Amino acid sequence: MIPVENFLVLAAVLFCIGGLGVVLRKNVLIILMSVELMLNAANLTLLAFARAHHDQHAHAFAFLVIAVAAAEAAVGLSIVVGIFRTRRTVQVDELTLMKH
Amino acid sequence: MEEFPLHYIPLLPLAGAAFCLLFGKRVGKTITTAVALCSVFGSGLLVASAVRLLHESPVPLTDTFFSATWISAGDLQLSAGLTLDRLSSVLCMIVTGIGFLIHVYASGYMAHDEGYTRFFGYLNLFMGAMLILVLGDSMPVTFVGWEGVGLCSYLLIGFWYDKEANANAGRKAFVVNRIGDFGFLLAMAYLFSLTGTLKYAELPSHLQTLGQTAWWGLPAAFFFGILVLVGATGKSAQIPLYVWLPDAMAGPTPVSALIHAATMVTAGVYVCVRLHVAFEIFPLTLAIIAIIGALTALFAATIGVLQRDFKKVLAYSTVSQLGFMFVGVGSAINTPTSVTSNYQGAIFHLMTHAFFKAGLFLGAGSVMHALSGEGDITRMGGLRKHLPHTHATFLLCCLAIAGIIPLSGFWSKDAILGGAHAAMWLPKGTGGAEVFFAHHLGLILYLILLATAACTAFYMFRLYFLAFWGEFRGTDEELHHIHESPASMTGVLWVLAIGAVGVGFLGIPDVVSSGGNHFGEWLLPVVREQAAEESAREFWTLAVIALGASAAGIGLAAALYLHGFSDQVRAMAAAFPSVYKFVYNKYYIDEFYNAVIVQPLRWISLGLWKVVDSFFIDGTVRLVGGLTLVVGKVVRYAQTGDVHHYVAGMLAGAALVFGLSVQLGGCHGYKFAEAASVATPRLQRMPRREHVTPDNVPLLPAVPGNGLIR
Question: What is the DSSP letter of B641?
Fold first, then answer.
């Protein structure tokens, strides 16, 4: 049986990749994808603990996260489309109107 | 104690004041006049009916409207009530009687004034406050009236407030009066801390307490008396607080007559007599009162000699006459068995003075009315042909104040002179340094008052001759405008003049005609008469001396001023220019107070303003505001608008919070090894759903056969 630590390490690695993607990439689409990666890393953690503890409740949380992620993707993508229509760009470093 | 609805006496004028001030403009002058006059007349009728009861039996009438609930704070439980005994009845009659006359006069005098309704509102307010002052059964109630009349005085002195001098005079009166009021307040607090009561009627049962030594071997009554005296000097314009009264003449003349001559300024005398039992404990307090009174009397009279403003002369005369009353209050005779003082003389003079001084002021008003407001006596003269009624009444009042037999001033002034002559503040036979109080002081005060009486006669007749005799010294245009005042004014002048002639007959001393002293008899239930043993011969000796002094004053005035300013006057003024200037400028007392008190206070205030307020307080506020601004200016550069920076910040923050919570033990990290080995029965009993609760609840270890998945 694969020990739970392996799942956790994998989840942590995925979370960090996602986090770095959010922080470093300029393209909004890629940032959204990175956010998805972070959310799924969290899912993986939940499921790993569920397995370790023989507790089914975490599955419900994972489903909830998936639903939220889907909604977020829908809203996020439509915002991106809206931004692209007005600004003709999806590069976040060009979208800096909200500064001092 | 008999009940009587006394509270209607002040309430009627107060209601009149409310009506005049709220609706006066809307309803017009006629209705305002009617309401103002009727309210005063109504309260006068009430006083009259109460006085009838008092005439039958001297038992004071009372009216308690707040029993023990007026002021309730800790140990302090104050009730408020009114009481009318024979002393306050005299004041009430003066206030409502003369007040009513002056209301009638003012309806003519102020007829063309824009602030007519406001004026009558204030005047009625004053009547209400003065009646509360007089009727109060305890010091706090009196104090309500005391402050009320001070307020009205301020409002009416500055009645024509668009002239700055008038507004300043009002402010000066208010501020100077505050000093006195503070003394009165302290007196109340001191009395309460000593005896636990502030009611006049309960005072005699606490004399023991008041007689106890307080500081420096002096009894508490002495300090109490001095504090009351401070209050009295403020209200009654005595040294050192008299300076406000001459300036108070900036107000309309009916105000000067009512408030600053006949009624309000006598409040200090009244309060001293009201509290006489406290003063009698330590008669030297009375000596201080008498000394202050005598000095004020002479001081003010000498200033009055050279003043050129009609009303200013009368103002100094008022200060001087109030000094007479204080001497009356303070002229005690201390025998081993009793202490008595000449309160009756003081109140008697208060009453006669109310008549003749109101008459004089209203006469002055009539003169100024005829001359379109001119008040400078160097620009008058010869008015007796043009103003016959004013002239006749003014002459009668002048003769009364000069103390010519048999006018009222003669009897009352003589009562005070005789009282001072007989006064002994320590029993006969006292030796050592105190012999001064026992034997000499009375005579000294008597001589001072005699000089003052001569002075009074001189400056009053100087005024009279300069205004009514000789040739007119104003312009021709003014001469054409001169007209006698309307009947509402001259009628009042005649009533007051008749009073000035007649009221003295109420108090003819018993040595002259046995049983003639109705006034003293009336007051007897409240204050005993001064226990002087005076024979008719002594009385007439003193009377002739006083008459001689008055006659000398009148004669000198006639010689110098009968035809205007004579050459001798000019020669004397030229011979002693420095003396002349010194007296004419009122001994530079105002300048002295200005330099010693007002200016230092200004500097202190300026320092407080510039240093404490502007620098420290405002500075602190500005510092806080400035710091916030600076911080904001720096920190706002973090707001780049770039999403990456925000995300990085958020992640860093989250990591920091997580790391800190682990470090500080707020969050139990998951320990696999421990979790596997620990299995407590308590945890096993917990329901399953608890296992997903936050991480500070110890997690259930993996126990074989316990879970659903294996």
Answer: S
In this prediction, residue B697 carries a pLDDT of 46
Q: What pLDDT is recorded for position B703?
A: 47
- DSSP at B515: T
Same domain, B527 and B575: yes
- Alpha-carbon dihedral sign for residues A14, A19, A22, A23: negative
Contacts of B251 (CB under 8 A, 6+ apart): B156, B157, B158, B159, B160, B166, B169, B170, B259, B260
A4 min Cα distance to partner chain B (Å): 10
Alpha carbons within 13 angstroms on the beta-carbon side of residue B377 total: 29
A1 touches chain B (CB under 8 A): no
- pLDDT tens digits for A63-90? 999 999 999 999 999 999 999 999 888 8
What is the gyration radius of the CA atoms in chain A, in angstroms? 17
* Helical (H) or strand (E) element with B219: strand B218-219
Is the C-alpha dihedral spanning A85, A87, A92, A95 positive or negative? negative
Residue A99 included in any domain: no
Q: For residue A30, how many other CB atoms are within 10 A of its CB?
A: 15
The number of helix segments (H) and strand segments (E) in chain B equals 30, 7
Segments forming the whole domain that contains residue A31: 4-94
**B45 by DSSP, 3-state: which?**
helix
> Is A24 close to B699, i.e. CB distance below 8 A?
no
Q: CA B50 to CA B61: how far, in whole Å?
A: 8
> How many structural domains are present in chain A?
1
**In a shared domain, residues B483 and B628:** no
- Residue A3, SS3? coil
Question: What local confidence, expressed as pLDDT, does residue B679 receive?
Answer: 42
Residue (of B485, B458, B467) closest to B401 by Cα position: B458
DSSP state, B692? G
Look up the CATH number of the domain holding residue A71.
1.10.287.3510
Question: How far is residue B571's CA from residue B23's CA, in Å, rounded to a whole number?
Answer: 58
Q: What is the Rg, in whole angstroms, of the alpha carbon atoms belonging to chain B?
A: 37
Q: Check: CB of residue B400 under 8 Å from CB of residue B352.
A: yes
**Same domain flag for B563 and B420:** yes
Q: Do the Cβ atoms of B209 and B141 come closer than 8 Å?
A: no
A73 falls within a domain? yes
Which residue ranges of chain B lie beneath pLDDT 70?
Answer: 1, 68, 429-433, 666-710
B631-670 per-position pLDDT tens digit: 999 988 888 888 888 888 888 999 899 888 888 875 455 5
Q: Furthest-apart CA pair in chain B: how many Å?
A: 137
- Of A25, A34, A32, nearest to A91 by C-alpha is A25
Whether B375 and B311 have beta carbons less than 8 Å apart is answered as yes
Mutant choice from A1, A6, A7, A23 vs B, greatest count of B C-beta within 10 A: A23
10 Å CB burial of residue B161 (0-12, 13-18, 19+) is: middle
Cβ neighbours around B390 below 10 Å, total: 26
Cis peptide before B240 (omega within 30 of 0): yes
- Tell me the residue range of the domain where B691 lies: 670-710
Over the stretch B390-409, which tens digit does the pLDDT of each residue have? 999 999 999 999 988 889 98
In degrees and rounded to multiples of 5, residue B179 shows phi and psi of -60, -45
In B669-708, the residues whose Cβ lies within 8 Å of chain A are: 672, 688-689, 691-692, 699-700, 702, 706-708
Q: Compute CA B595 distance to the chain's CA centroid, rounded to the nearest angstrom.
A: 24
Task: Give the pLDDT score at B709.
Answer: 43
ipTM: 0.81
DSSP letters, B82-147, are EEE-HHHHHHHHHHHHHHHHHHHHHHHHTTT-TTHHHHHHHHHHHHHHHHHHHHBSBHHHHHHHHH
For A23, the closest of B637, B648, B692 (CB atoms) is: B648
